[in-house]
Write a structure and sequence with these properties.
It holds the Pfam family HSP70. Keywords: ATP-binding, Nucleotide-binding. The chain has about 500 residues and is of the alpha+beta class. It has helices spanning about 50, 75-85, 110-130, 145-160, 170-175, 225-245, 255-275, 300-305, 305-320, 350-355, 370-385, 485-495; strands at about 5, 5-10, 20, 30-35, 35-40, 45, 60, 90, 95-100, 105-110, 135-140, 165-170, 190-195, 200-210, 210-220, 280-290, 290-300, 335-340, 400-405, 415-420, 430-440, 450-460, 465-470, 475, 480. Strands 19, 22, 23, 24 and 25 form a five-stranded antiparallel sheet that branches. The chain has a four-stranded mixed sheet with strand order 15-14-13-18. Strands 6-5-7 form a three-stranded antiparallel sheet. It starts with a strand and ends with a helix.
């Protein structure tokens, strides 16, 4: 999540359809950098102001929070994040969090608390544009998000003071923007969404028919995005600087970190420039020991530096297609439409790579692929408001439940621990543990005499709920398998 965007659906006075409006900030920017800075005296800056302070307050500015949210601290992905993050990553009750210093004291924050600040900023922008308070929202998420990540994202919206009408996966939002859900007949179509953003890569295959958009395959890489392209350019520049000056920059020093941040800013700017130009110059004054940095970078060199990275994205496409139809797979020619989304799809090499993979077919891409997802979410919100207005009160229809019955395993057993895993491996412990809970107050009896019914149901937001029933006693309270419940959220919100 390098940048964030907010849009809404504006009704017209006539009987014709309304239009989607993308909100601008006070400086007419439609994209808000997803940077949050924590300062003394409880001051919090979000967006460009926070990003502009990176050099001055690097340890208190958090970005790329999508790579942290809902992730356990012991996940291997956290190791990669720590390598490039100036912010201290900490273990908060088993979950990855961040640590900042405010008013001379250490403060630990969950990623969803940071995300809350970004959502509050977007909410304020929308309210300024619309002219009245915003109470409800549709939030977009990657299709690969786990249950814990969905739960954490929903929690962030609630802490920002919003009722979350639904979470919509980003590929579906992109399909809505391109009107791929509209049909002139009863046929269906298969759409592949290639979402290559600043933080992550997501490849999704959708099956669209009248009134339905179904995700039939998801792939991607949570540690592969525009930041990684930029890191490869940074490493190249440091090698070139060393070859020119024999000076090795130590990022662990204050001077080295300042130089690194200045270089990163230049690399990001020139990377974008190379989408239009054939060459660019990366220049940083007084980079190290009184020496200026000046490195020429051509588009061809950028492609060479990231050739392996780009190939990894196509490996994800291949694996995702292979997973369609329960592993039967799908050929590129069976895809009806290819849609490009995300800032990294501006890169000409990426566009040509996708076109070649799909045998010369031209992918769909808006003039600004970074806005596609927000505009699609606004269309979804309009659909909910018009055809399912009851969702305004935040009620929702959950999915079809699945029920299994279990029995006590030993005499006088009064409790059963239930562990819920997410994944497709036949060995349960090889999958992701979503959560655990204990069914209590089972009447003492002989083994197998006290059956317990457990009902699993995935909500409209994709969050798993579990309901247990000791058949001799009745239904027990429903469990949300996740990290935080609304009661806990309200407690957190009071201290924000």
């Amino acid at each position: 999540m390098t940048n964030s965007c907010v849009a809404y659906y504006k009704r017209c006075d006539t009987k014709k359809d309304g239009k989607v409006v993308v909100c601008h900030d006070s400086k007419n920017n439609v994209l808000t950098p997803s940077y949050v800075e924590y300062k003394d005296n409880e001051e919090i800056l979000v967006g460009n102001k926070a990003k502009d302070n990176l050099l001055a307050n690097r340890h208190n500015i958090i970005y790329s929070v999508k790579r942290l949210i809902g992730i356990p601290f012991n996940d291997p992905e956290i190791t990669s994040y720590i390598k490039h993050s100036p912010v201290n990553i900490v273990d908060i009750n088993g979950s990855a969090g961040v640590e900042v210093e405010v008013d001379g004291e250490s403060r630990q924050l969950l990623p969803e608390e940071v995300l809350t600040q970004v959502i509050c900023k977007l909410k304020a922008m929308a309210e300024e544009d619309i002219g009245h308070p915003v109470l409800n929202a549709v939030i977009t998420v990657p299709a690969y998000f786990t249950d814990a990540q969905l739960e954490a994202t929903t929690n962030a919206g609630i802490m920002a003071g919003l009722k979350i009408l639904t979470l919509i996966n980003e590929p579906t939002a992109a399909a809505l923007f391109h009107k791929l859900d509209r049909f002139d007949d009863t046929s269906s179509r298969i759409v592949l969404i290639y979402h290559f953003g600043g933080c992550t890569l997501e490849v999704t295959v959708l099956n669209l028919s009248i009134g339905e958009i179904n995700v039939i395959a998801v792939g991607g890489d949570n540690q592969l995005g525009g930041h990684d392209i930029c890191n490869n350019i940074i490493d190249y520049c440091l090698r070139e600087f060393y070859a020119q000056t024999r000076i090795m920059v130590d990022r662990n020093t204050v001077e080295g970190d300042r130089a690194y941040r200045g270089l990163k800013d230049q690399c990001e700017k020139q990377k974008c420039r190379l989408s239009e130009a054939l060459k660019a110059t990366i220049a940083v004054d007084n980079f190290a020991d009184g020496h200026d940095m000046k490195v020429e970078l051509t588009r061809a060199k950028l492609e060479e530096l990231n050739k392996e990275l780009f190939a990894r994205t196509m490996d994800c496409v291949t694996r995702t297609l292979a997973g369609v139809k329960n592993g039967i797979g799908m050929k590129p020619d069976e895809i009806d439409h290819i849609v490009l989304v995300g800032v990294s799809t501006y890169i000409p090499y990426v566009k040509n790579m996708i076109k070649k993979y799909f045998n010369g077919r031209q992918p769909l891409q808006s003039l600004n692929p970074m806005l596609v997802v927000a505009e699609g979410a606004a269309i979804k919100a309009a659909n909910l408001n018009g055809t399912q207005a009851y969702l305004q009160d935040n009620s929702r229809v959950d999915g079809i439940p699945s029920t299994k019955e279990y029995q006590t395993a030993c005499d006088n057993q009064t409790e059963i621990e239930v562990k819920v895993y997410e994944g497709e491996d036949p060995v349960a412990t090889n999958n992701t543990l979503l959560g655990r809970f204990v069914v209590m107050n089972i009447p003492p009896d002989k083994a197998g005499k006290q059956p317990v019914s457990i009902e699993f149901c995935v909500s409209g937001n994709g969050i798993l709920k579990v309901k247990t029933t000791v058949l001799s006693q009745g239904t027990l309270p429903e469990e949300n398998v996740g990290r935080l419940f609304t009661k806990e959220l309200l407690i957190i919100k009071k201290f924000l």
